[in-house]
Amino acid sequence: MTPSRPLHHTLAALALAGTLATPLVGCVRYQPVAALIPPAESATVRVTLTDAGSRAVAAALGPGLVSMVGRTQPARGDSLVLRVSRTWHVSGFDEARRGDTVVLAPAHIETTSRREISVLRTIALGTAIGAVAILLRSVVLQSGSGGGTTGGGNGGGTPP
């Protein structure tokens, strides 16, 4: 059985799509930001809250929050203004948000980390996706080649 053309083209398309999409999606990491240096406006940050911070945002976002991710907005004095996209609760439950905005005073923030693309992780992921696609393609092509010989010959014995 020989692999059909559509399967061959599908595998090639998947390999190409995976390799090209990896830099767009990328692998991210959160780098700690010094407490005295506020993140730039429109940076994506993860904030770990103090107990006072959890109580301060409870009315707007619900009780028991331990951390949140969002984009920074124009600052208000020494406070961090955050448009929240995801929150994590003390129970481990996480919740997507639709951009609730909170103002966090320095006393409400335990740690702040800025989201960055990890170039090395992205390259490693792209290489792995490409290698797996090539491996799958070669397995499919080899399994479709038949592998053995059939027919022909004179039924064994000594040659005439």
Detail the topology: elements first, then pairings.
Layout: H1 5-25, E1 28-32, E2 44-49, H2 51-61, E3 65-72, E4 80-89, E5 94-104, E6 109-117, H3 119-143
Helix pairs in contact: 1-3
Task: Describe the model.
The structure is a single chain. This protein has 160 residues and is an alpha+beta fold. The protein has three helices and six strands. It has a six-stranded antiparallel β-sheet with strand order 1-6-2-3-4-5. β4 and β5 (94-104) form a beta hairpin. It is elongated, with a radius of gyration of 28 Å. It starts with a helix and ends in a 17-residue tail after the last helix. The model has no long low-confidence stretch (mean pLDDT 75).
Distance between the termini: 34 Å
Number of helices, where a helix is a run of at least 4 consecutive DSSP H or I residues:
3
Q: Mean of the pLDDT scores?
A: 75
Strand residues, percent: 25-35%
- Which strands sit side by side, in order, in the main sheet? 1-6-2-3-4-5
Q: Count the beta strands.
A: 6
The biggest beta sheet reads: 6 strands, antiparallel
Q: What is the chain-wise order of helices and strands?
A: HEEHEEEEH
Radius of gyration: 28 Å
Structural class: alpha+beta
Helix content: 25-40%
The unreliable regions are none
Shape: elongated
